[in-house]
Design goal:
Number of helices: 3
Largest sheet: 6 strands, antiparallel
Strand order of the largest sheet: 6-5-9-3-2-17
Number of strands: 39
Shape: globular
Helix content: under 10%
Radius of gyration: 25 Å
Length: about 550
């Protein structure tokens, strides 16, 4: 977690054994066909001693590639910072040693390039447990200008947080209050929700361990501690004793898998975690609100907890007021300090019943393929987190026509929920907007468009003349050009089409099921204006005019 995305898609990574060094050597003489090498997959894992964050990239040819890391180091009690050990294809290439806290761009040992082989490469960053290496993402390119992070967006966001800038939180839009199954619970739809970064961090804690987390801010706020996964059940690490230089600056003897003749972790034996079940996530979640201190305007929250289950835990600090922003200092176990970190909250009232039925909640990003939301469900009568997700499962992403970085949660709730909040995974691009669809009954088997067809002109051939909208079909349109159109019908939806006021069909998309959630871009809606949305069901065609800003 950060996961820059906790993608579980990398179940097993086969790594090379060639010794690769971080060098400032001769870079590629030819330009890459695509200047920036895309990240194909990311994962987090552990060997019990070290925690790992891995990025899989595909180099078009062997050579030296400029590589930059966007990361958040912790400050230690001795004023040192997290040391990030870097491996390429399982071989140690150097360490990143930050000299200050907060989010920043960095290179390995000051070197701008890493040696990659042609084809698949895995770049891994390691940190001593319990801290997970907070590396949000990396940039790899054949030229230096393409492999550079700008801190401008984060610095502007931090400045706004220091001044307590507020954000408008939209109300729930009108949506069908009927359902096609016995639950009789309608879909909730929210458009243009602020998608802002707020502090989060992942740690691996051990059962019985006492943890103590404090946070301080001028604004009221809350600390979330949520269990989200553990090492696989067959985790049985054969270890040897080795003297390892701890990043806090002391020598200690610990069990570790090592390379012969070295004291470095052997990356290839790392194991992916097992995700928490819905019941575990709802039960192993805690919230700690801040209180105003005596004789001071400072708000302080304290979280003292005996860890009930060994595994990975998300620590999130959020503003207590929806739409609010500020900064906070965070201290984990008296060992890890984070100063002046932004805290925000985008929370919407939403009650999902605990009636034995499974309900889905999902985001629909405004910037398709770019935005990366964290989704949280609040409940249990005390605003604690009873469900959260970073990136949805690929099957559901495809079914609901979502971005691969959209969030998706489906579960049966053990208690009635109270709200939904969304946070931005990205600190390098910390401000955006998204749409949220909630209370989608899994029992009703709703479907959405399965293709992103973009057909114009002749696509309208054979379409019936649109009629006015009747009560059997409900359409909720977006507020802006980057939103989604949500449709709910009593009958099976066959097709959704978009027309201009001149009567020409701009685009259409085929649908299966009685519910459709469609990105505006899938219907070729690229400009502001007034459009006609036509919904074809077994009973005919109904329509509604929508105005887009």
């Amino acid at each position: 977690m950060r996961m820059k995305r906790l993608l579980m898609v990398v179940a097993c990574i086969v790594l090379a054994t060639t010794n690769v060094q971080a060098v400032g050597a001769q870079v590629l003489e030819e330009a890459s066909p695509t200047a920036v090498i895309p990240i194909l997959g990311m994962s987090e894992s552990t060997d019990g001693i070290y925690n790992f964050k891995s990025f899989e990239v595909n180099a078009y040819k062997s050579g030296s590639y400029y590589t930059e890391f966007w990361l958040l180091p912790a400050k230690y009690a001795n004023n040192n910072y997290t040391a990030f050990m870097v491996f390429v294809n399982d071989m140690y290439v150097g360490t990143i040693n930050p000299s200050f806290g907060n989010w920043q761009a960095a290179h390995v040992n000051g070197n701008e390039t890493l040696e990659l082989k042609e084809g698949t490469n895995v770049i891994t960053v390691a940190a001593h447990a319990p801290e997970f290496p907070e590396v949000e993402t990396i940039k790899v390119a054949a030229n230096g200008s393409e492999a550079t992070f700008s801190s401008d967006a984060y610095e502007k966001f931090l400045e706004d947080a220091l001044h307590g800038v507020s954000y408008d939180i939209p109300a729930q839009e009108e949506m069908s209050m009927y359902a096609s199954d016995a639950t009789a619970v309608g879909i909730a739809h929210y458009s243009n929700v602020p998608l802002n970064y707020t502090f989060y961090k992942t740690f691996s804690f051990t059962q019985g361990q006492e943890i103590f987390i404090t946070s301080s801010s001028l604004a009221p706020h809350k600390i979330d501690v949520v269990y989200y996964g553990s090492a696989p059940k067959n985790f049985n690490l054969n270890t040897t004793k080795a003297s390892i230089h701890d990043t806090i600056g002391e020598k200690k003897s610990v069990p570790a898998i090592i390379y012969p003749g070295t004291s470095l972790p052997q990356v290839k034996y790392r194991l992916l975690y097992t995700p928490a079940t819905s019941e575990e996530m709802q039960g192993l979640s805690y919230v700690y609100p801040s209180e105003k201190t005596l004789n001071s305007s400072m708000q302080v929250a304290t979280a003292k907890l005996t860890i009930p289950k060994t595994g990975q835990y998300l620590v999130r600090v959020r503003h207590a007021v929806s739409g609010g922003s500020s900064v906070a200092d965070v201290n984990v176990n008296g060992a890890y300090y984070y100063e002046n970190t932004p805290i925000t909250l985008s929370c919407l009232d939403c009650q999902i019943p605990a009636d034995g039925n499974a309900y889905a909640t999902m985001t629909c990003c405004n910037n398709f393929g770019t935005d990366d939301p964290y989704l949280f469900i609040h409940g249990a009568d005390n605003d604690r987190i009873v469900g959260f997700n970073d990136d949805g499962p690929s099957k559901k992403i495809k079914q609901y026509n979502l971005s691969e970085w959209d969030s998706y949660i489906s579960q049966k709730y053990l208690m009635r929920t109270s709200g939904i909040s969304v946070s931005n995974y990205s600190s390098s691009n910390p401000v955006s907007r998204c749409n949220i669809i909630a209370r989608v009954s899994e029992g009703a088997s709703p479907s959405v468009a399965k293709t992103r067809a973009r057909t114009k002109g002749s696509a309208a051939t054979g379409m019936q003349t649109p009629s006015t909208l009747d009560e059997s079909v409900r359409i909720v349109g977006p507020e802006n050009i980057n939103g989604v159109i949500t449709i709910s019908a009593n009958d099976e939806i066959k097709r959704v089409s978009l027309y201009g006021l001149d009567g020409n069909c701009i685009g259409f998309i085929n649908v299966e099921g009685s519910t459709a959630i469609i990105q505006t871009s899938a219907l070729n809606m690229t400009q502001s204006g007034i459009y006609i949305v036509c919904v074809e069901t077994a009973n005919g065609v109904t329509s509604k005019k929508i105005a887009i800003k």
